[in-house]
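Researcher: I'm preparing a figure for a lab meeting and need a structural model of a single chain. I don't have an experimental structure, so a prediction will have to do for now. The sequence is pasted below. Please return the structure as tokens so I can convert it later.
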Amino acid sequence: MAPVEDFPVDKWNAIIAINLSASFHSIRLAVPGMKRRGWGRIINVASAHALVASPFKSAYVAAKHGIAGLIKTVALEVAEHGITANAICPGYVLTPLVEHQIPDTAKARGITEEQVIKDVLLAAQPTKQFVTTGEVAALAVFLASDAAKSITGAILPVDGGWTAH
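Model: Understood. Here is the structure written out token by token.
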């Protein structure tokens, strides 16, 4: 987390590689086999940041917006092959990554860690609760099922209402 003018270039490159390029390469390598089988499910876990921005997260937000565009493009390319491509966009999930961001955010904003949770992380989520990993997993299981065969190119928020603003 840093203002765009101070964002380290090596961190930018690493975040884009992990959060966007890795998805591209995984999809690129998986699609031929899916096409041969005439069936496949591509599910990327993006973030609410694929739909909205937050300050000091230029690389992460850019990568997640890139996932949204990648998924939509892939969905169009593979639609006639029995393959779907979708992205799940969770709001804040209390993962180790988020737990590690809390002290950094507190320092960057000059507030307490409790204020970061209440006034920064969960402020945008009307439910005022972290999204659970189980909620994200349940949507992924559904998207992988035959019941979701007509859902493709969707960017699906699971964000406690964050992107409803």
